[in-house]
């Protein structure tokens, strides 16, 4: 229950005034971040005007949402004048991660993962700006130095049944994500991550076994981070990514470090934080120096998406072309990392395709119609060659759904509504088997686009089916899209 009234809450009123929000808008923002029905739309009026303090964890949720939008930290203490306390269930993704970048620091992080286990009830809130960069700044600035273990140790091929089992399991875990989306099997992959963490935490291994286990932990952590990102659980994704980055650093696997930083860049761009995306993407590019052409191309494709999110058109085109050139001219003489299996020339083209559609839609919103239409047309041409139409038995279902949703958005933006509905129907049909809130959010955007076009006969036929499928199969979006810290 809310605590008794104490008079108007001037701190809350001041924050709402800065944002030009009504209390109803605040309620809607809270419900968007934490789920429909979290708070009644009338409740914040009582908080602002009568000084009532809501039941936990709403004080923490409210402070978090306001911090996001104001781009500065608004503490629970400040907002509620000491009459509410922070909820221990909601913590920033960077909480208790400021350890040194050495084996002891990694051990502290693994202890947190292992002790949390399946009963961990914490909800990690995504961080941005200085808060996000601070957890990786020692690596970015070179202060972390070299990792403790030689890369040659992690490449040891001696037979060890335990390590072999762990390593052989990684490609199978990756298939779960490809086929079913991040949300379906994230708890299982997270359990595998903690299991390997427990093996490392217990110790007693040779240096070679330890190095191989840490490298496997980094690969599984990267996958778990990606799956959490696909699940729109952005704070948890950041926590996995940072732990994986620190593990990869300990075995001096610069290519994997670059790959993880590039994923973090892509996540930041997807969350509409282009400055973070560019900072992380450019760091990933530096870390990828000396890696195989495929690794460098993959990193550049993520950086290009960050440039597109920032509206830096020429930088996007230049970087995207560099990635394509690397793939087209690779010789195949270098051994690719095992986690680089997914990158094909077509996959790279499709990544550029949805970046172009994103860029084109942004330009249309800014009334740059000629440029916007050109970008969208280029993006459509690239995505038409991709995975959006693969059969249901194909293992690339999550990719197909994501690319199909982007392609349908491209056609809706260009006014080609028959084609938008046709492609959208194919993508929406995958909701029955793919649990990817990241992709579902795109289909929700498509439904929003089409609601404005309901006079069109193709839209009238398709839109009710799309909305029904989203309601039935699309899990609620948990996207956290703004800033804690700045």
Task: Write up this protein.
The structure is a single chain. The protein has 486 residues and is an all-alpha fold. It has three domains: 10-87; 103-252, no CATH class; 351-473, Serine Threonine Protein Phosphatase 5, Tetratricopeptide repeat (Alpha Horseshoe), CATH 1.25.40. It contains 23 helices and two strands. The chain has helices at residues 10-19, 23-34, 43-50, 58-70, 76-80, 103-116, 130-134, 137-140, 151-154, 161-180, 182-202, 207-230, 234-250, 254-270, 274-287, 293-309, 313-328, 345-365, 369-383, 397-413, 417-429, 437-451, 457-473, and strands at residues 90-92, 123-125. The protein has a two-stranded parallel sheet. Strand 1, helix 6 and strand 2 form a beta-alpha-beta unit. The two termini are 33 Å apart.
Summarize the structure.
With 486 residues, the protein is mainly alpha-helical. 66% of the residues lie in helices and 1% in strands.
Q: Tell me the strand order in the biggest sheet.
A: 1-2
- Overall, the morphology is globular
Low-confidence stretches: 476-486
Strand content: under 5%
Residues in helix, %: 55-70%
Number of domains: 3
- Output the radius of gyration: 23 Å
Order of helices and strands: HHHHHEHEHHHHHHHHHHHHHHHHH
How far is the N terminus from the C terminus? 33 Å
Which sheet architecture does the biggest sheet show?
Answer: 2 strands, parallel
Average residue pLDDT: 90
* Number of contiguous helices: 23
Count of β-strands: 2
Which structural class is indicated by helix and strand composition? mainly alpha
